Amino acid sequence: MEGEDEDHEFLFNTSADQSFNKHERVIIHIDIDCFYAQVEMILNPSLRGKPLGIKQKNIVVTCNYEARALGVEKLMTIKSALEKCPSLILANGEDLKKYREMSEKIYQVLQSYSLFVEKLGFDENFIDVTHKVVKCPEVPQVITGHTFQDSDGICACGCTERLAQGSFIAQKMRDRLRDELGITSCAGIAFNKLLAKLIGTTHKPNQQTTLLSTSSLSLIKSLKHPRNIPGIGSAINRKLEALGIDTIEKLQSAEIFKLTEALGAKIANQIQQLSFGIDNSHVKITDRPKSIGAEDGFTPIRSEVEVQKKLTCLLDRVLELVEKDGRKPSQLKLTVRKLHPSSHSVRESRQTTIEYATETGSSTHQGPGGEKQKVKLMTTLKNLFEKIIDCDVSWQVTLLGISFSGFPSSNSASPVKNSINKYFHLKASSSRSEEPQPPAKRGRFDESVLQELPPDIRQEVLQDMQNQLPSSDAQKPTDFNCPKGIDPLVFYELPMEIREELLAEERMKKQTIKRKPNNLLQYFRKAS
Ligand code: DCP
Ligand code: MG
Ligand code: MG
């Protein structure tokens, strides 16, 4: 069970880059509907349409929307849930493996839209799509899904149009999650993370809501109590209550020195800004650890039996962590600290490739598959130990460590680095070549990479690319290389050849060369 009452004060770091004070960004927050229950219904479709609760110990951690309609609530005791709904079916949710696997698949789908995806728990993700939003006057300005707007005022900075495009992208992401994984979700679209998370919960399930920036204060005020602001958990709330602060308005008008006295300057500032809906924190790309392991230090041991005991305990601990992580390692490393007769210590490690089975029958490696795997891994560890220690002469060991690594590269490497490397690789290979290459092979218009970069880096890269092109090149890359009259979001979905054709037609028009009208171009103009 996840801690329901945790303080997430560092989640929304309001003191970050102040240049984000305007409404420049487009942030999408996606939260999966009744997550554990949906996973169970996918695995066992006969549960669909029936009230279903997921139990951990004596708590119903979540339930599907059929059960909610009958009065069951998240985090109810099983006893009260069954009182509310005697027909409630209960599924055991203590093995988290299947939820973790689905969570990973969701993350992968979202990352195919934007590299800037931050995972929050199992079923939530923030996605920054600012760089996907195309500055083009022809883009439809209609918001997809619900709109939260409590006044007629419209901000003049262009954020409404940007958010409208964000809502279109959010709909596409949710459609893909539904079509590819069979998962429904809710999305919130706003100009910062805090507001995106809050607005997404206003229409549930399987819906999305966009917050217009002029209505952000009223959304925050509608929360009424500070404890309802994500980031303000029970510990902070207790301190606020002690200061008599029990409404959002009181937090907004609280004297900062009083807040600072009780909470420290950093948190005081952060939570006061949150109470105004201000959150300048970035979407941090979720990166996974490159290795998972544990070490144990002890008074000297001298026998192989003792080493085996220690390693068995360590392996159990580490396997549980690997299991929780959900990825499959391909390397196993053993670290040993040897105590020399002169009483100085030396650490030494040895690593080897392993075959790691993910289907072991249980998340804690207790099943028969898990036992077999443990025996194999223990043999490998023993071999590694014998490479470090010569067991024929006396020895003493004061530390043992086990670590797994070599996880699939798509998860362990930073996607941003990959993209930039990909770009520079393209550039390097094109500059090495003496022969002129056809445009498509030169990588000069690799939007899949360009579109993923933050606007400032992208601009720099584009400029750099332009400088490298021979002046005879008819079609230099521009940031918004989209023919007039076509929805750029539709345009960038098209196959490269069709885009090239449309762009060629556009260039022809510009050069006022007489030519038969292009049917393809006409079609997309009509469609948008
Ligand atoms: N969870 C848990 N313990 C908690 C809270 C949640 O184990 N204290 C698990 C069960 C949920 C999952 O995390 O399925 C996601 O939590 P949510 O709060 O997003 O709840 P749901 O996704 O179940 O429902 P909703 O449709 O309201 O988002
Ligand atoms: Mg959820
Ligand atoms: Mg959630």
UniProtKB/TrEMBL annotation:
One record GO biological process: translesion synthesis
Superkingdom of the source species: Eukaryota
Coiled-coil ranges from the UniProt annotation: none
Transport found in the keyword field: no
Gene Ontology MF annotations: damaged DNA binding; DNA-directed DNA polymerase activity
Domain UmuC residue range list: 27-233
Keyword annotations from UniProtKB, A to Z: DNA synthesis, Transferase
Sequence segments annotated as region (Disordered): 428-448
Membrane-crossing residue ranges in chain numbering: none
UniProt record similarity statement: Belongs to the DNA polymerase type-Y family.
Record protein name field: UmuC domain-containing protein
Record organism: Daphnia sinensis
Record lineage: Eukaryota, Metazoa, Ecdysozoa, Arthropoda, Crustacea
